[in-house]
Design brief:
The chain is mainly β. Helices cover about 0% and strands about 45% of the residues. The strands form three sheets. The chain has an eight-stranded mixed sheet with strand order 10-11-12-13-17-16-15-14, with no helix packed on it. A hairpin with a 2-residue loop joins strand 14 and strand 15. The radius of gyration is 18 Å and the shape is globular.
Length: about 240
């Protein structure tokens, strides 16, 4: 196993240097790079690498509409669509959700119903796709407060719904953590909490992966990776 530089042999120039961006594999062949930050300049472009031809290109509508310049957002692929969730521009956190169709390269913003279904603005949250064409969003920072809420997006309706854990146990508020869907669980590790405290704990959320799941699920507790006590994450039930 080894690392080596990967230089696209043709096509358009690669993305400009940046941090806080997203790079998401959509379908089997498209690596979509969106947004980011260069020094103090927030970026809103979309640049795509075709991994089969090893060529970079810019979609024709990449500079028209869309989420606009931002960094520290979430990006999740669902089939041929890319979901861009929240993020920050300057000191303004966003609470919106955008969808890019990689067949037409058309951006659209999900509109929450008047009765609710929105999420609080944030950056440095994490999101993952789960079964039933749903996306789970956890944590982040709203500019004043670290968050520990869990929300689920039903992409067929475009509605976000808060998820309440049945036992009242959940990770402490945090941002900049990592989350992954593993079998029938969501795993959350690390992050930064209030007062800049770094987290070294591992949490598992069960029950959210099942089709037709309701808004109440069980959090199983944590393992302190630093060697402290805590409940185990258990099996994949």
């Amino acid at each position: 196993m080894r690392w080596f530089p990967c230089a696209a042999s043709g096509g358009e120039p690669p993305p400009s240097p940046r941090s806080g961006h997203s790079a998401t594999l959509v379908g089997r062949t498209l690596l979509v790079v969106f947004g980011g930050l260069h020094t103090k300049h927030f970026i809103g472009d979309t640049v795509v690498l075709d991994v089969e031809t090893e060529r970079w290109f810019r979609p024709p509508s990449s500079a028209v509409g869309g989420p606009g310049p931002r960094a520290f957002h979430c990006a999740v692929a669902v089939d041929r669509q890319l979901y861009i969730i929240c993020g920050r521009t300057g000191r303004q956190q966003h609470g919106d959700t955008w969808v890019l169709d990689t067949d037409t390269w058309f951006w659209r913003r999900l509109q929450s119903p008047a009765s609710g279904g929105a999420i609080a603005p944030r950056d440095f949250g994490t999101a993952a796709r789960i079964s039933g064409n749903r996306i789970v969003l956890f944590g982040g920072y709203d500019g004043k407060t670290w968050l520990s809420d869990t929300n689920v997006l039903d992409i067929t309706t475009g509605v976000w719904r808060p998820l309440q854990v049945v036992n009242g146990i959940a990770p402490t508020p945090r941002s900049g953590h990592a989350m992954a869907a593993v079998e029938r669980r969501l795993l959350v590790f690390g992050g930064q909490g209030s007062n800049g405290q770094l987290c070294g704990d591992l949490w598992a959320l069960r029950g959210v992966m099942e089709e037709g799941s309701t808004s109440r699920r069980e959090s199983t507790g944590s393992v302190d990776v630093g060697g402290g006590g805590g409940g185990g994450i258990g099996g994949g039930g």
